[in-house]
Q: What sequence folds into this?
Protein backbone atom coordinates (compact mmCIF):
# COMPACT_ATOMS: atom_id res chain seq x y z
CA UNK A 1 0.00 0.00 0.00
CA UNK A 2 1.07 3.55 -0.61
CA UNK A 3 1.75 5.81 2.30
CA UNK A 4 -0.47 8.84 1.75
CA UNK A 5 0.65 10.60 4.91
CA UNK A 6 2.54 13.23 2.87
CA UNK A 7 -0.79 14.41 1.48
CA UNK A 8 -2.09 15.38 4.92
CA UNK A 9 -0.71 18.91 5.01
CA UNK A 10 -1.66 19.86 1.41
CA UNK A 11 -5.16 18.42 1.86
CA UNK A 12 -5.56 20.12 5.21
CA UNK A 13 -4.34 23.41 3.71
CA UNK A 14 -6.82 23.17 0.85
CA UNK A 15 -9.66 22.37 3.21
CA UNK A 16 -8.70 25.29 5.45
CA UNK A 17 -8.54 27.71 2.55
CA UNK A 18 -11.88 26.49 1.27
CA UNK A 19 -13.41 26.72 4.74
CA UNK A 20 -12.11 30.25 5.09
CA UNK A 21 -13.49 31.12 1.67
CA UNK A 22 -16.92 29.87 2.73
CA UNK A 23 -17.08 32.42 5.52
CA UNK A 24 -15.30 35.33 3.85
CA UNK A 25 -16.16 35.16 0.15
CA UNK A 26 -19.82 35.94 0.49
CA UNK A 27 -22.12 37.87 -1.77
CA UNK A 28 -24.62 40.13 -0.07
CA UNK A 29 -27.23 38.65 -2.34
CA UNK A 30 -27.51 35.17 -3.70
CA UNK A 31 -29.75 34.75 -6.66
CA UNK A 32 -30.97 31.44 -7.91
CA UNK A 33 -32.85 31.23 -11.19
CA UNK A 34 -35.12 28.21 -11.28
CA UNK A 35 -36.47 28.23 -14.80
CA UNK A 36 -36.28 30.15 -18.04
CA UNK A 37 -38.55 29.46 -21.03
CA UNK A 38 -37.01 27.65 -23.96
CA UNK A 39 -37.56 30.65 -26.22
CA UNK A 40 -35.38 32.80 -23.95
CA UNK A 41 -32.77 30.07 -23.72
CA UNK A 42 -32.60 30.04 -27.50
CA UNK A 43 -31.67 33.72 -27.33
CA UNK A 44 -28.78 32.86 -25.00
CA UNK A 45 -30.56 33.65 -21.73
CA UNK A 46 -30.16 30.43 -19.82
CA UNK A 47 -30.60 30.33 -16.04
CA UNK A 48 -26.92 31.07 -15.32
CA UNK A 49 -26.82 33.96 -17.76
CA UNK A 50 -30.01 35.45 -16.28
CA UNK A 51 -28.61 35.20 -12.76
CA UNK A 52 -25.25 36.69 -13.72
CA UNK A 53 -26.89 39.52 -15.66
CA UNK A 54 -29.12 40.50 -12.73
CA UNK A 55 -26.24 40.29 -10.24
CA UNK A 56 -24.08 42.44 -12.51
CA UNK A 57 -26.85 45.00 -12.95
CA UNK A 58 -27.34 45.18 -9.17
CA UNK A 59 -23.62 45.70 -8.75
CA UNK A 60 -23.64 48.35 -11.48
CA UNK A 61 -26.42 50.29 -9.74
CA UNK A 62 -24.31 50.31 -6.60
CA UNK A 63 -21.21 51.32 -8.53
CA UNK A 64 -22.83 54.13 -10.50
CA UNK A 65 -24.66 55.46 -7.44
CA UNK A 66 -21.30 55.82 -5.66
CA UNK A 67 -22.71 57.45 -2.59
CA UNK A 68 -20.72 58.96 0.25
CA UNK A 69 -23.11 57.24 2.62
CA UNK A 70 -21.40 54.01 1.72
CA UNK A 71 -22.67 50.69 0.55
CA UNK A 72 -22.14 48.58 3.59
CA UNK A 73 -23.66 45.65 5.33
CA UNK A 74 -27.17 45.33 4.07
CA UNK A 75 -26.46 46.55 0.61
CA UNK A 76 -24.31 45.56 -2.23
CA UNK A 77 -20.58 45.45 -2.43
CA UNK A 78 -18.27 43.27 -4.49
CA UNK A 79 -21.21 41.80 -6.31
CA UNK A 80 -19.03 41.12 -9.30
CA UNK A 81 -16.82 38.74 -7.38
CA UNK A 82 -18.18 35.22 -7.48
CA UNK A 83 -15.03 33.14 -7.23
CA UNK A 84 -16.28 30.79 -4.51
CA UNK A 85 -19.61 30.41 -6.25
CA UNK A 86 -17.86 29.45 -9.47
CA UNK A 87 -15.56 26.96 -7.70
CA UNK A 88 -18.38 25.37 -5.73
CA UNK A 89 -20.47 25.14 -8.89
CA UNK A 90 -17.63 23.36 -10.65
CA UNK A 91 -17.24 20.96 -7.74
CA UNK A 92 -21.01 20.39 -7.64
CA UNK A 93 -21.32 21.50 -4.01
CA UNK A 94 -22.90 24.91 -4.58
CA UNK A 95 -26.09 24.08 -2.69
CA UNK A 96 -24.18 22.75 0.32
CA UNK A 97 -21.95 25.82 0.44
CA UNK A 98 -24.97 28.12 0.23
CA UNK A 99 -26.73 26.14 2.96
CA UNK A 100 -23.71 26.46 5.26
CA UNK A 101 -23.43 30.17 4.52
CA UNK A 102 -27.13 30.56 5.30
CA UNK A 103 -26.77 28.80 8.67
CA UNK A 104 -23.79 30.96 9.53
CA UNK A 105 -25.84 34.09 8.86
CA UNK A 106 -23.51 35.17 6.07
CA UNK A 107 -26.07 35.92 3.40
CA UNK A 108 -28.34 38.86 4.20
CA UNK A 109 -30.56 38.33 1.17
CA UNK A 110 -31.42 35.15 -0.70
CA UNK A 111 -33.42 35.51 -3.87
CA UNK A 112 -35.08 33.03 -6.14
CA UNK A 113 -36.46 33.86 -9.53
CA UNK A 114 -38.01 32.39 -12.61
CA UNK A 115 -39.07 33.64 -15.99
CA UNK A 116 -42.33 32.27 -17.31
CA UNK A 117 -44.05 32.74 -20.62
CA UNK A 118 -47.79 33.11 -20.81
CA UNK A 119 -48.91 33.43 -24.38
CA UNK A 120 -46.95 36.27 -25.87
CA UNK A 121 -46.01 37.85 -22.55
CA UNK A 122 -42.99 37.16 -20.36
CA UNK A 123 -43.21 37.37 -16.59
CA UNK A 124 -40.41 37.38 -14.10
CA UNK A 125 -41.22 36.32 -10.57
CA UNK A 126 -38.71 36.98 -7.80
CA UNK A 127 -39.02 35.87 -4.21
CA UNK A 128 -36.61 37.21 -1.63
CA UNK A 129 -35.76 36.37 1.96
CA UNK A 130 -33.60 38.28 4.35
CA UNK A 131 -31.55 36.75 7.14
CA UNK A 132 -34.06 38.45 9.46
CA UNK A 133 -36.78 36.21 7.99
CA UNK A 134 -38.45 39.05 6.11
CA UNK A 135 -39.73 38.04 2.73
CA UNK A 136 -40.89 39.83 -0.37
CA UNK A 137 -42.13 39.00 -3.80
CA UNK A 138 -41.83 40.92 -7.04
CA UNK A 139 -43.61 40.17 -10.30
CA UNK A 140 -42.52 41.91 -13.46
CA UNK A 141 -44.29 41.79 -16.77
CA UNK A 142 -42.65 42.40 -20.13
CA UNK A 143 -43.56 45.78 -21.56
CA UNK A 144 -44.39 44.43 -24.96
CA UNK A 145 -45.53 41.12 -26.27
CA UNK A 146 -42.49 39.08 -27.13
CA UNK A 147 -44.03 37.79 -30.33
CA UNK A 148 -45.60 40.76 -32.00
CA UNK A 149 -47.64 40.22 -35.13
CA UNK A 150 -46.70 43.72 -36.20
CA UNK A 151 -43.13 42.57 -36.49
CA UNK A 152 -43.74 39.59 -38.71
CA UNK A 153 -41.72 39.98 -41.85
CA UNK A 154 -42.85 38.08 -44.89
CA UNK A 155 -40.12 36.99 -47.18
CA UNK A 156 -38.78 34.11 -49.16
CA UNK A 157 -36.71 31.54 -47.36
CA UNK A 158 -34.19 31.00 -50.11
CA UNK A 159 -33.28 34.65 -50.28
CA UNK A 160 -32.40 34.79 -46.60
CA UNK A 161 -30.60 31.49 -46.60
CA UNK A 162 -28.31 32.77 -49.26
CA UNK A 163 -27.82 36.00 -47.41
CA UNK A 164 -28.70 38.01 -50.49
CA UNK A 165 -32.06 39.64 -50.55
CA UNK A 166 -31.78 40.56 -54.20
CA UNK A 167 -31.24 36.97 -55.18
CA UNK A 168 -34.94 36.05 -54.85
CA UNK A 169 -35.92 37.05 -58.32
CA UNK A 170 -33.39 34.74 -59.86
CA UNK A 171 -34.44 31.71 -57.83
CA UNK A 172 -37.79 30.30 -58.90
CA UNK A 173 -37.63 27.38 -56.43
CA UNK A 174 -37.90 29.49 -53.26
CA UNK A 175 -41.07 29.06 -51.21
CA UNK A 176 -42.93 31.83 -49.42
CA UNK A 177 -42.51 31.66 -45.68
CA UNK A 178 -42.73 33.95 -42.69
CA UNK A 179 -39.68 35.03 -40.79
CA UNK A 180 -40.59 36.17 -37.31
CA UNK A 181 -38.43 38.72 -35.59
CA UNK A 182 -39.22 38.94 -31.95
CA UNK A 183 -38.70 41.38 -29.10
CA UNK A 184 -37.38 38.60 -26.92
CA UNK A 185 -33.83 39.87 -26.66
CA UNK A 186 -34.80 43.47 -25.92
CA UNK A 187 -37.62 42.48 -23.59
CA UNK A 188 -35.54 40.09 -21.51
CA UNK A 189 -32.80 42.72 -21.24
CA UNK A 190 -35.36 45.27 -20.08
CA UNK A 191 -36.96 42.75 -17.72
CA UNK A 192 -33.63 41.98 -16.07
CA UNK A 193 -32.78 45.68 -15.69
CA UNK A 194 -36.14 46.31 -14.05
CA UNK A 195 -35.66 43.23 -11.86
CA UNK A 196 -32.29 44.53 -10.63
CA UNK A 197 -33.81 47.95 -9.90
CA UNK A 198 -36.76 46.34 -8.09
CA UNK A 199 -34.43 44.26 -5.91
CA UNK A 200 -32.35 47.30 -4.94
CA UNK A 201 -35.53 49.27 -4.33
CA UNK A 202 -36.71 46.75 -1.75
CA UNK A 203 -33.42 46.44 0.13
CA UNK A 204 -31.85 49.89 -0.25
CA UNK A 205 -34.19 52.41 -1.90
CA UNK A 206 -31.78 55.32 -1.39
CA UNK A 207 -29.15 53.60 -3.50
CA UNK A 208 -31.62 53.39 -6.37
CA UNK A 209 -32.58 57.05 -5.91
CA UNK A 210 -28.94 58.03 -6.05
CA UNK A 211 -28.47 55.89 -9.17
CA UNK A 212 -31.37 57.65 -10.89
CA UNK A 213 -30.01 61.00 -9.75
CA UNK A 214 -26.59 60.37 -11.29
CA UNK A 215 -28.26 59.30 -14.52
CA UNK A 216 -30.69 62.19 -14.70
CA UNK A 217 -28.58 65.06 -13.35
CA UNK A 218 -27.16 66.04 -16.78
CA UNK A 219 -30.65 66.83 -18.05
CA UNK A 220 -31.95 68.01 -14.63
CA UNK A 221 -35.34 66.42 -15.37
CA UNK A 222 -35.35 63.88 -12.51
CA UNK A 223 -38.48 62.06 -13.66
CA UNK A 224 -37.39 58.84 -11.96
CA UNK A 225 -35.35 60.41 -9.17
CA UNK A 226 -38.07 62.49 -7.52
CA UNK A 227 -40.66 59.71 -6.97
CA UNK A 228 -37.87 57.48 -5.66
CA UNK A 229 -36.67 60.20 -3.28
CA UNK A 230 -40.20 60.66 -1.97
CA UNK A 231 -40.37 56.91 -1.39
CA UNK A 232 -37.08 57.05 0.54
CA UNK A 233 -38.37 59.89 2.70
CA UNK A 234 -41.45 57.77 3.43
CA UNK A 235 -39.80 54.51 4.35
CA UNK A 236 -36.32 55.24 5.67
CA UNK A 237 -35.68 55.70 9.39
CA UNK A 238 -35.60 59.35 10.44
CA UNK A 239 -31.83 59.60 10.76
CA UNK A 240 -31.24 58.06 7.35
CA UNK A 241 -33.79 60.30 5.66
CA UNK A 242 -31.17 63.06 5.56
CA UNK A 243 -29.62 61.37 2.53
CA UNK A 244 -32.73 61.49 0.30
CA UNK A 245 -33.52 64.98 1.59
CA UNK A 246 -30.05 66.11 0.61
CA UNK A 247 -30.54 64.66 -2.85
CA UNK A 248 -33.94 66.35 -3.09
CA UNK A 249 -32.27 69.67 -2.31
CA UNK A 250 -29.65 68.92 -4.96
CA UNK A 251 -32.41 68.20 -7.48
CA UNK A 252 -33.91 71.64 -6.86
CA UNK A 253 -30.44 73.18 -7.07
CA UNK A 254 -29.81 71.55 -10.43
CA UNK A 255 -33.10 72.98 -11.68
CA UNK A 256 -32.07 76.44 -10.52
CA UNK A 257 -34.63 76.56 -7.70
CA UNK A 258 -32.14 77.61 -5.01
CA UNK A 259 -34.73 78.95 -2.54
CA UNK A 260 -36.53 75.61 -2.42
CA UNK A 261 -33.22 73.79 -2.12
CA UNK A 262 -32.25 75.94 0.88
CA UNK A 263 -35.60 75.18 2.50
CA UNK A 264 -34.83 71.47 2.23
CA UNK A 265 -31.34 71.96 3.68
CA UNK A 266 -32.89 73.74 6.65
CA UNK A 267 -35.05 70.66 7.23
CA UNK A 268 -31.98 68.42 7.23
CA UNK A 269 -30.31 70.78 9.66
CA UNK A 270 -33.16 70.18 12.10
CA UNK A 271 -32.53 66.42 11.97
CA UNK A 272 -28.74 66.50 12.23
CA UNK A 273 -27.06 69.85 12.68
CA UNK A 274 -23.57 68.37 12.32
CA UNK A 275 -24.13 66.69 8.96
CA UNK A 276 -21.39 68.32 6.84
CA UNK A 277 -23.14 67.96 3.49
CA UNK A 278 -26.00 70.20 4.61
CA UNK A 279 -23.95 73.33 5.16
CA UNK A 280 -21.87 72.50 2.11
CA UNK A 281 -24.87 72.37 -0.23
CA UNK A 282 -26.60 75.25 1.50
CA UNK A 283 -23.50 77.36 0.92
CA UNK A 284 -23.39 76.23 -2.68
CA UNK A 285 -26.99 77.34 -3.21
CA UNK A 286 -26.19 80.74 -1.68
CA UNK A 287 -23.11 81.07 -3.88
CA UNK A 288 -25.24 80.27 -6.92
CA UNK A 289 -27.43 83.23 -5.91
CA UNK A 290 -24.33 85.42 -5.68
CA UNK A 291 -24.18 85.53 -1.88
CA UNK A 292 -20.55 84.50 -1.53
CA UNK A 293 -19.81 85.82 1.98
CA UNK A 294 -22.53 83.81 3.77
CA UNK A 295 -21.68 80.89 1.51
CA UNK A 296 -18.06 80.97 2.72
CA UNK A 297 -19.24 80.86 6.32
CA UNK A 298 -21.28 77.76 5.54
CA UNK A 299 -18.32 76.11 3.82
CA UNK A 300 -16.26 76.77 6.94
CA UNK A 301 -19.05 75.22 9.00
CA UNK A 302 -19.04 72.16 6.72
CA UNK A 303 -15.29 71.79 7.27
CA UNK A 304 -15.77 72.13 11.03
CA UNK A 305 -18.63 69.59 10.97
CA UNK A 306 -16.45 67.14 9.04
CA UNK A 307 -14.75 66.44 12.36
CA UNK A 308 -17.98 64.79 13.51
CA UNK A 309 -18.13 62.71 10.35
CA UNK A 310 -14.55 61.95 9.33
CA UNK A 311 -15.79 59.08 7.17
CA UNK A 312 -17.13 61.57 4.64
CA UNK A 313 -13.91 63.17 3.38
CA UNK A 314 -15.61 64.26 0.16
CA UNK A 315 -17.63 66.84 2.11
CA UNK A 316 -14.45 68.44 3.44
CA UNK A 317 -12.68 68.47 0.06
CA UNK A 318 -15.75 69.84 -1.70
CA UNK A 319 -16.08 72.55 0.95
CA UNK A 320 -12.50 73.75 0.36
CA UNK A 321 -13.01 73.62 -3.39
CA UNK A 322 -16.27 75.60 -3.30
CA UNK A 323 -14.82 78.03 -0.76
CA UNK A 324 -12.01 78.75 -3.19
CA UNK A 325 -14.54 79.20 -6.01
CA UNK A 326 -16.34 81.84 -3.95
CA UNK A 327 -13.05 83.61 -3.17
CA UNK A 328 -12.19 83.60 -6.86
CA UNK A 329 -15.60 85.11 -7.57
CA UNK A 330 -14.78 87.84 -5.02
CA UNK A 331 -11.41 88.42 -6.71
CA UNK A 332 -9.33 87.11 -3.77
CA UNK A 333 -6.97 84.87 -5.69
CA UNK A 334 -4.18 84.63 -3.10
CA UNK A 335 -6.62 83.61 -0.41
CA UNK A 336 -8.22 81.08 -2.78
CA UNK A 337 -4.83 79.48 -3.40
CA UNK A 338 -4.15 79.29 0.32
CA UNK A 339 -7.54 77.62 0.91
CA UNK A 340 -6.96 75.11 -1.88
CA UNK A 341 -3.53 74.21 -0.53
CA UNK A 342 -4.97 73.61 2.94
CA UNK A 343 -7.72 71.48 1.42
CA UNK A 344 -5.21 69.39 -0.46
CA UNK A 345 -3.39 68.49 2.76
CA UNK A 346 -4.57 66.22 5.58
CA UNK A 347 -7.43 64.46 3.86
CA UNK A 348 -9.01 62.19 6.45
CA UNK A 349 -9.32 58.48 5.86
CA UNK A 350 -12.64 57.12 4.71
CA UNK A 351 -13.99 54.83 2.07
CA UNK A 352 -13.97 57.70 -0.40
CA UNK A 353 -10.58 59.11 0.53
CA UNK A 354 -9.22 58.78 -2.99
CA UNK A 355 -12.30 60.54 -4.41
CA UNK A 356 -11.82 63.41 -1.94
CA UNK A 357 -8.11 63.53 -2.62
CA UNK A 358 -8.71 63.66 -6.37
CA UNK A 359 -11.21 66.47 -5.94
CA UNK A 360 -8.73 68.55 -3.96
CA UNK A 361 -5.92 67.94 -6.46
CA UNK A 362 -8.22 68.77 -9.34
CA UNK A 363 -9.38 72.04 -7.78
CA UNK A 364 -5.80 73.11 -7.06
CA UNK A 365 -4.50 71.98 -10.43
CA UNK A 366 -7.22 73.82 -12.29
CA UNK A 367 -6.58 76.96 -10.24
CA UNK A 368 -2.81 76.89 -10.91
CA UNK A 369 -3.45 76.36 -14.61
CA UNK A 370 -6.09 79.03 -15.01
CA UNK A 371 -5.03 81.80 -12.64
CA UNK A 372 -1.29 81.27 -12.03
CA UNK A 373 -0.15 79.78 -15.32
CA UNK A 374 1.99 77.46 -13.18
CA UNK A 375 1.66 74.64 -15.64
CA UNK A 376 4.28 72.34 -14.14
CA UNK A 377 2.62 72.13 -10.74
CA UNK A 378 -0.84 72.20 -12.27
CA UNK A 379 0.08 69.14 -14.30
CA UNK A 380 1.26 67.33 -11.18
CA UNK A 381 -2.02 67.98 -9.38
CA UNK A 382 -4.23 67.16 -12.35
CA UNK A 383 -2.36 63.92 -12.90
CA UNK A 384 -2.84 63.02 -9.25
CA UNK A 385 -6.56 63.68 -9.68
CA UNK A 386 -6.69 61.38 -12.69
CA UNK A 387 -4.75 58.65 -10.87
CA UNK A 388 -6.98 58.74 -7.82
CA UNK A 389 -10.33 59.10 -9.52
CA UNK A 390 -10.46 58.72 -13.28
CA UNK A 391 -13.36 61.02 -13.98
CA UNK A 392 -13.53 62.19 -17.62
CA UNK A 393 -13.70 65.79 -16.40
CA UNK A 394 -10.32 65.50 -14.68
CA UNK A 395 -8.80 63.81 -17.68
CA UNK A 396 -10.14 66.43 -20.04
CA UNK A 397 -8.64 69.25 -17.96
CA UNK A 398 -5.30 67.44 -18.05
CA UNK A 399 -5.62 67.21 -21.82
CA UNK A 400 -6.38 70.92 -22.02
CA UNK A 401 -3.20 71.61 -20.07
CA UNK A 402 -1.19 69.38 -22.37
CA UNK A 403 -2.58 71.29 -25.33
CA UNK A 404 -0.93 74.40 -23.89
CA UNK A 405 2.33 72.67 -22.98
CA UNK A 406 3.07 70.33 -25.87
CA UNK A 407 3.32 71.66 -29.43
CA UNK A 408 1.26 69.57 -31.84
CA UNK A 409 -0.65 67.86 -29.01
CA UNK A 410 -3.83 69.63 -29.98
CA UNK A 411 -3.91 68.16 -33.49
CA UNK A 412 -3.44 64.66 -32.16
CA UNK A 413 -5.85 65.14 -29.27
CA UNK A 414 -8.50 66.59 -31.57
CA UNK A 415 -8.24 63.61 -33.90
CA UNK A 416 -8.31 61.25 -30.93
CA UNK A 417 -11.27 63.05 -29.39
CA UNK A 418 -13.11 62.98 -32.71
CA UNK A 419 -12.56 59.23 -32.87
CA UNK A 420 -13.69 58.79 -29.27
CA UNK A 421 -16.77 60.92 -29.84
CA UNK A 422 -17.75 58.94 -32.91
CA UNK A 423 -17.29 55.69 -31.08
CA UNK A 424 -19.26 56.97 -28.11
CA UNK A 425 -22.11 58.11 -30.37
CA UNK A 426 -22.29 54.72 -32.06
CA UNK A 427 -22.19 52.99 -28.67
CA UNK A 428 -24.94 55.20 -27.28
CA UNK A 429 -27.13 54.44 -30.22
CA UNK A 430 -26.54 50.72 -29.82
CA UNK A 431 -26.83 50.36 -26.09
CA UNK A 432 -29.74 51.51 -24.07
CA UNK A 433 -27.75 51.21 -20.84
CA UNK A 434 -24.89 53.58 -21.57
CA UNK A 435 -22.26 54.14 -18.95
CA UNK A 436 -22.88 57.18 -16.76
CA UNK A 437 -19.63 58.76 -17.93
CA UNK A 438 -20.76 58.86 -21.53
CA UNK A 439 -24.10 60.16 -20.41
CA UNK A 440 -22.69 62.91 -18.24
CA UNK A 441 -20.07 64.29 -20.53
CA UNK A 442 -21.94 65.72 -23.51
CA UNK A 443 -24.94 67.00 -21.59
CA UNK A 444 -22.91 68.93 -19.06
CA UNK A 445 -21.98 71.41 -21.72
CA UNK A 446 -25.51 71.88 -22.90
CA UNK A 447 -27.20 72.42 -19.56
CA UNK A 448 -26.60 75.92 -18.24
CA UNK A 449 -27.88 74.98 -14.80
CA UNK A 450 -25.44 72.19 -14.29
CA UNK A 451 -22.03 73.05 -13.02
CA UNK A 452 -19.70 70.14 -13.87
CA UNK A 453 -18.08 70.58 -10.49
CA UNK A 454 -21.40 69.84 -8.86
CA UNK A 455 -21.76 66.52 -10.59
CA UNK A 456 -18.29 65.47 -9.49
CA UNK A 457 -19.03 65.99 -5.83
CA UNK A 458 -22.77 65.45 -5.79
CA UNK A 459 -23.67 63.05 -3.03
CA UNK B 1 -20.11 29.14 37.19
CA UNK B 2 -20.59 32.83 36.33
CA UNK B 3 -18.07 32.67 33.47
CA UNK B 4 -20.15 30.11 31.57
CA UNK B 5 -23.34 32.02 32.27
CA UNK B 6 -21.79 35.17 30.81
CA UNK B 7 -20.46 33.18 27.85
CA UNK B 8 -23.88 31.66 27.18
CA UNK B 9 -25.51 35.10 27.49
CA UNK B 10 -23.07 36.61 24.99
CA UNK B 11 -23.60 33.67 22.62
CA UNK B 12 -27.38 34.06 22.84
CA UNK B 13 -27.08 37.82 22.34
CA UNK B 14 -24.90 37.53 19.27
CA UNK B 15 -27.01 34.81 17.70
CA UNK B 16 -30.24 36.69 18.37
CA UNK B 17 -29.00 39.99 16.98
CA UNK B 18 -28.06 40.54 13.38
CA UNK B 19 -24.32 40.72 13.16
CA UNK B 20 -22.94 43.90 11.69
CA UNK B 21 -19.31 43.00 11.25
CA UNK B 22 -16.78 40.83 12.94
CA UNK B 23 -13.01 40.74 12.67
CA UNK B 24 -13.12 38.12 9.92
CA UNK B 25 -16.66 37.79 8.64
CA UNK B 26 -20.03 39.50 8.47
CA UNK B 27 -21.81 36.41 9.69
CA UNK B 28 -22.93 35.29 13.12
CA UNK B 29 -20.69 34.07 15.91
CA UNK B 30 -20.60 30.55 14.48
CA UNK B 31 -19.22 31.92 11.23
CA UNK B 32 -16.67 33.86 13.21
CA UNK B 33 -15.54 30.80 15.12
CA UNK B 34 -15.38 28.81 11.89
CA UNK B 35 -13.20 31.49 10.30
CA UNK B 36 -11.06 31.70 13.44
CA UNK B 37 -10.58 27.94 13.38
CA UNK B 38 -9.44 28.11 9.74
CA UNK B 39 -6.99 30.89 10.53
CA UNK B 40 -5.72 28.97 13.59
CA UNK B 41 -5.09 25.83 11.54
CA UNK B 42 -3.38 27.87 8.80
CA UNK B 43 -1.06 29.51 11.30
CA UNK B 44 -0.44 26.10 12.88
CA UNK B 45 0.56 24.63 9.55
CA UNK B 46 2.80 27.59 8.77
CA UNK B 47 4.56 27.46 12.15
CA UNK B 48 5.05 23.71 11.88
CA UNK B 49 6.68 24.24 8.48
CA UNK B 50 8.87 27.12 9.68
CA UNK B 51 10.01 25.54 12.96
CA UNK B 52 10.82 22.20 11.44
CA UNK B 53 14.48 22.20 12.64
CA UNK B 54 14.79 20.11 15.77
CA UNK B 55 16.62 22.52 18.17
CA UNK B 56 14.17 25.32 17.42
CA UNK B 57 11.17 23.03 17.30
CA UNK B 58 11.94 21.82 20.78
CA UNK B 59 11.41 25.34 22.12
CA UNK B 60 8.06 25.80 20.31
CA UNK B 61 5.03 24.26 22.00
CA UNK B 62 3.37 21.76 19.68
CA UNK B 63 -0.39 21.75 19.55
CA UNK B 64 -2.71 19.41 17.77
CA UNK B 65 -4.87 20.61 14.88
CA UNK B 66 -7.78 20.86 17.29
CA UNK B 67 -5.67 22.99 19.60
CA UNK B 68 -4.82 25.49 16.84
CA UNK B 69 -8.46 25.51 15.74
CA UNK B 70 -9.69 26.15 19.28
CA UNK B 71 -7.24 28.98 19.92
CA UNK B 72 -8.15 30.66 16.62
CA UNK B 73 -11.86 30.29 17.34
CA UNK B 74 -11.58 31.59 20.88
CA UNK B 75 -9.65 34.71 19.87
CA UNK B 76 -11.97 35.66 17.00
CA UNK B 77 -15.12 34.89 18.98
CA UNK B 78 -13.87 37.11 21.79
CA UNK B 79 -13.17 40.01 19.39
CA UNK B 80 -16.48 39.43 17.64
CA UNK B 81 -18.38 39.55 20.94
CA UNK B 82 -16.69 42.79 21.90
CA UNK B 83 -17.58 44.35 18.55
CA UNK B 84 -21.13 43.10 18.87
CA UNK B 85 -21.38 44.59 22.32
CA UNK B 86 -20.07 47.90 20.99
CA UNK B 87 -22.74 47.97 18.22
CA UNK B 88 -25.41 46.95 20.71
CA UNK B 89 -24.56 49.82 23.05
CA UNK B 90 -24.33 52.27 20.13
CA UNK B 91 -27.84 51.36 19.04
CA UNK B 92 -29.07 51.59 22.60
CA UNK B 93 -27.82 55.15 22.95
CA UNK B 94 -28.76 56.12 19.39
CA UNK B 95 -32.31 54.82 18.92
CA UNK B 96 -32.76 56.57 15.56
CA UNK B 97 -30.04 54.39 14.14
CA UNK B 98 -26.90 55.16 12.24
CA UNK B 99 -26.63 57.01 8.98
CA UNK B 100 -26.02 53.81 7.10
CA UNK B 101 -28.40 50.91 6.69
CA UNK B 102 -26.92 48.05 8.67
CA UNK B 103 -29.58 45.50 9.50
CA UNK B 104 -30.70 43.55 6.43
CA UNK B 105 -33.93 45.44 5.89
CA UNK B 106 -36.69 44.76 3.44
CA UNK B 107 -38.51 48.03 2.92
CA UNK B 108 -42.26 47.99 2.19
CA UNK B 109 -43.40 48.65 -1.32
CA UNK B 110 -44.99 52.01 -2.07
CA UNK B 111 -48.71 51.43 -2.80
CA UNK B 112 -49.43 51.44 -6.50
CA UNK B 113 -45.82 51.10 -7.50
CA UNK B 114 -45.26 48.95 -10.56
CA UNK B 115 -41.76 47.75 -11.24
A:
Amino acid sequence: MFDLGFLTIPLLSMLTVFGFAVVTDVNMITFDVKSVPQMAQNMGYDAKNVRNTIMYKVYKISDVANTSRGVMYSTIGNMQQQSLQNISETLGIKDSVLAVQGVLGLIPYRLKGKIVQEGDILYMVITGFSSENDSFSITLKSNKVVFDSAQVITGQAGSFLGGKLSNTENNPNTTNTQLITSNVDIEIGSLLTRAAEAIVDRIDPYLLARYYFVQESPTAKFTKTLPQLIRCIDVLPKQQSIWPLLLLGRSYHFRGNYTKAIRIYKEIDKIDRHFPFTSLRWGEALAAQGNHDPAIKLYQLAIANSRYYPKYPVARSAAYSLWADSLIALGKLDEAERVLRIGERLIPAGHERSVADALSHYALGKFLMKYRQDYKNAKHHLRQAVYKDGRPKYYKTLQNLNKILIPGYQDYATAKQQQADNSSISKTSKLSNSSPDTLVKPSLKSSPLVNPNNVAVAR
Amino acid sequence: MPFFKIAIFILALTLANPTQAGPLTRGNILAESFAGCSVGITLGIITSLIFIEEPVAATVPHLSIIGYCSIGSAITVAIHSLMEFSYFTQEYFDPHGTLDTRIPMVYPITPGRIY
User: Anything to note?
Assistant: Chain B has a mean pLDDT of 72. DSSP finds four helices and no strands in chain B. The helical segments of chain B are 2-16, 29-50, 54-59, 65-93.
